[in-house]
Amino acid sequence: MLCRPRKAFASLLPRGRFRDQRLARALGVFTLTLGTDALGASMDFALERLVTPETASCQDPGATGNGAFCAPDQVAFKKLMHQYGMAIAPNGAYPAKTTGYAGFEILAELTITGIDSSSDAIQRGTRGSPDAATGRDAAENVHPASALPLYALRLRKGFGFGLELGGTLGLLGDTSLITGGADLRFAALEGFREGVLGYFPDVAVTGSVRTVTGASQVQLTVAGAEATFSKPFSIAKTGELTPWLGYQYLWTFGSSGVVDLTPEKSALGSNDFYNNRFFDAVSLQRHRLNLGVSYKYEILVVGAQLGLDLGSPDGDADLAGEMKQWALTLQAGATF
């Protein structure tokens, strides 16, 4: 005779007060785990620290009157989005030639992006390590990372007529951020190895987008358009070496949720609701040069690429002196 699901589940649990104690302990461990996760990683965002120097005293629990009003540091937020935008941006690490109508490729990737660890925006705007004595969050990140690793899995599938669709899912190291996105490519010229066209490189254009989840304070999305030129060379008739050159134009879109700029104060006790603020949304553009090479042996593929900023972001005086970032991508996988 069959039991009802609810009764069957209940029969597996201890009975009486002992069962209640076990459930209470389990809930306690679960709550503690959530609390630990909420502390975040050292390079997670900490936007509550980004107030202008002129209004920094607003975070003092005893501040009153005009001194209790916090102004968000919009320039620091913009610099933070600029640097993290490069870390999650589409890397464009592939030759112009698509996988073809029946082709499919899967790659594991590591992309390491340089970060300006001396930047005030990075030091104040990222979590850092908790105080060893009290376990509380530090006032700033005194030892921020100088590079952020992005671990990703990428898929590419060709559909013929030069079209290819790709997808990626990754984890940004030292943070709680999960990244994901898609690429749509069109190879305008590919596969010609003889005759006049055989002297020309393969040429492709790509549209890409990447976004993140796992950050309650920030929504960050990067879109890109790229032109890629590559040329394969046979190696001992068993392998294929393909260098490529790419140019990317990247758009970074960053915005914040509601941020409590005075987390040490009780809004109910001090009428502090006006310090729950948004940061202005940012829209930034940048140019990047990609230099890469891949080697294919039968179905196995390995590759590397170096991406370099070309100048400062377009038309933004606030970022004129910012570090020109770099991104090194290493990849390995198989193509079918």
Quick structural gist:
Helices cover 17% and strands 40% of the residues. The chain contains five helices and 13 strands.
Question: Could you say which overall geometry the principal axes of the C-alpha atoms support?
Answer: elongated
Unreliable sequence segments: 1-20, 22-38
Our estimate of the beta-strand percent is 35-45%
Distance between the termini: 51 Å
Give the helices and strands as they follow along the chain: HHHEHEEEEEEEEHEEEE
Largest sheet: 10 strands, antiparallel, barrel
Share of residues in helices: 10-25%
The gyration radius over C-alpha positions equals 25 Å
Average pLDDT taken over every residue: 86
Number of alpha- plus pi-helical segments: 5
Class computed from helices, strands and strand pairing: alpha+beta
Supply the CATH class: Mainly Beta
Architecture (CATH level 2) name: Beta Barrel
Strand order in the largest sheet = 1-2-3-4-5-6-8-11-12-13
What does this structure look like?
The protein has 336 residues and is α+β, with helices and mostly antiparallel strands. It has a single domain, classed as Lipocalin. The chain is 17% helix and 40% strand. The chain has a ten-stranded antiparallel β-barrel. The chain is elongated and about 80 Å long.
